[in-house]
Amino acid sequence: MKRDLLSPKDFSPEEIEGIFSLAAELKAKQKQGLSHTFLLGKTLAMIFEKPSLRTRVTFEAGMTQLGGHAIYLAPADIRLGERETVQDGARNLERWVEGIVARTFRHEMVERLAQYAGIPVINGLTDRHHPCQIFSDLFTILEKRERLQGLKVAFIGDGNNVCNSWLEGAALMGMHFVAACPKGYEPDAEALAWAEEYAGLSGARLEVVYDPRQTTEGADVLYTDVWTSMGQEEERTRRLRDFQGFQVNRSLVERAKPDVLVMHCLPVHRGEEITDEVMDGSRSVVFDQAENRLHVQKAILVKLLGGNT
Ligand code: CP
Ligand code: NVA
């Protein structure tokens, strides 16, 4: 039975821990130059409706390092749902390749691809979720702090795809997650409801507040993301106004724990959601996060495309 990864809750906490162990093993092997060709001869199709640096390069390099191959399909190449139906596209792809990564506007697009394709579909970001990012972020925190349970993550900014996936990820791993968003920019109600219900099992604590200064006390992680996500460019002027006061800057960082980790999924709009000083400062781990996209996604690929996991 094939498995998909459309949002973090598609994996159990035990499976996520398994991904992290494998990611650590693959990271060590890669650093030592040891062969780890677990996906020899396998092919990944990568459908992108939006631009990407990190997701594209890490999946593509990851497949190469695993002994497989990735095919990048740019927005103009296939136009799923326009040139042919999603169903027909999926039914072609499943005959040729072992897996699909898709970055789409509508989340329903990856759901439909997963429904019709008999091969694993991995969400490489939709308007609603970004699971590979959050798994890489959790792995980065685990590397730095050696645990996740009980740690406090303060997310300052837009209740967007990254925030929604963080809610699920934090709930799964029993963390304390506080999102501070301007009114009208709260996270997705469905992601929040699922996370709140799961928190009852995992011991997680989840909050949505409207003042960033309410989040920082005892925070182990300060996380932010762009105020204007891909596809929202025409809202930029309004968003720049509405997010005033939500910048991660020195005065906010000084309110958190002295050893707080500052995180950002990138790309960054410097001088908007975060200052240069904090982005490039000693607490920032943003490039470790970006590196770990490679190792964690390789582990996800091995789990989903490897055949015997
Ligand atoms: N963080 C992230 O997904 O980056 P890209 O948009 O460059 O892939
Ligand atoms: N929220 C951002 C994340 C980019 C990785 C966006 O969707 O553009």
Secondary structure elements and pairings:
Elements: H1 13-32, E1 43-48, H2 54-65, E2 69-73, H3 75-78, H4 86-96, E3 99-103, H5 107-116, E4 121-123, H6 131-145, E5 152-156, H7 161-172, E6 176-180, H8 189-202, E7 205-209, E8 221-224, H9 236-242, H10 250-253, E9 261-264, H11 276-279, H12 286-305
Parallel strand pairs: 1-2, 1-3, 3-4, 5-6, 5-8, 6-7, 8-9
Bound molecules: phosphoric acid mono(formamide)ester (CP) and norvaline.
Textual characterization of the structure:
The protein has 309 residues and is an alpha/beta fold. It folds into two domains: 8-130 and 292-305, Rossmann fold; 133-289, Rossmann fold (3-Layer(aba) Sandwich), CATH 3.40.50. Helix content is 43%, strand content 14%. The protein has helices spanning 13-32, 54-65, 75-78, 86-96, 107-116, 131-145, 161-172, 189-202, 236-242, 250-253, 276-279, 286-305; strands at residues 43-48, 69-73, 99-103, 121-123, 152-156, 176-180, 205-209, 221-224, 261-264. The strands form two sheets. Strands 7-6-5-8-9 form a five-stranded parallel beta sheet, covered by helices on one side. A four-stranded parallel beta sheet has the order 2-1-3-4, sandwiched between helices. The longest helix has 20 residues, at 13-32. Bound molecules: phosphoric acid mono(formamide)ester (CP) and norvaline. Phosphoric acid mono(formamide)ester (CP) binds at residues 52-55, 125, 133, 265-267.
